[in-house]
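Morning run. Coffee first, then this:
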Amino acid sequence: MAIENKVSQSKIMFINFLSYFILMTAAPALQADSIMFQANLERNGVYEAEGPKSEPVLAWTFDAGAAVFSTPLVYSGIVYFVDIDGGVYALNQSDGTLLWERSLGGQPSFQIAIDEDVLLVGRLFSEEGDGSYLIAIDRKSGEERWKFETNDRSGMDSPTIYNDMVFLASMSNFIFSLDLADGKEIWRHPISGGDRQPLISNGVLYFQDVSQTIYALSPESGELQWSFTPPTDRQWHFSTPAIGGEYIYALISGEESSVLSKINKINGELVSEFPIDYSSMSSVSLAENVAFFGDDGEGHAGAHGNMNAINVKNGELLWRFETEGFVRGGAAISGDIVYFGSHDHYLYAVDRHTGEMKWRYETGAGIASAPAVVDGRVYFGSIDGHVYVLE
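And here it is:
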């Protein structure tokens, strides 16, 4: 049975204290963590934990009151997420009770990042027009630790944490490196703007900006190692690439056609291009030389979308699973199952090898949140304003 969690303001302080006391004094049964978008710094979407293989049950749901596009993150018994109105939430992992919440006063970055001490979230813009920032929030109390602002008022998007540094892009001009301890700027590098996540692999920082150019930078200095600009004039990009072995796999959108590009991560040389049939706003997931990504099908006229599985050695389409809505969130790979949402209101579990549906779960609106898989459960948000946890 669904548990609708709407907590009155008069009870929040008591629940906060009680839940925090329990979490800190008793070893919680749920200990595995998921601390970033797409599971890891190479953004391949592969989770070590296994999720429900057969028809799931609802463990709990939380009503945020506004659409949830972010991937819920789980750390040390607490679930964190943001909603589209700028609400930032910390919930008890066991039952979804509210520990704390705060408001950014404007639209947040699409994804967040956490470590042992802080939660990082960007603010893209606000109705008041008073600029944007990246804020570090104390993970346990919800209090502000520090805030990073720039003078160009460009939106601060999704952060990445690595080696006590923070990397994030503005929506217009730069990718930044900050000190995780205090938010002080270390370096900045010019880009054409960004709205997705940086990647890290073998000590190198990678990022694909809205011009679809891919950069390889030194995390310590910001020095450019190489850049790859695809042969397209389309200034539009919403997908985060994935890294596997020696290669970056990135979706490149064109006016007439799109491709999945295979790029050498050492020197930036294009190795292969695999044509794809439909435009995509989905991030790429990757497991055992197979790339998984969603698409928009034939567009609004067709009103459907697909999850695709492509062999990245030869570009062969292994299978395609059609849904009745766009598939724009990333896929979570867990064991032999691929979990993903669709704008047709369903979360799907599909066999990774065959594309056969194992089960689906309906919510009240479309799903653009990439799921996370932790301790036998799947965590995801819906445009209906809820976070769902299935087991």
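Residues 9-25 form the longest helix (17 residues). Good start to the day.
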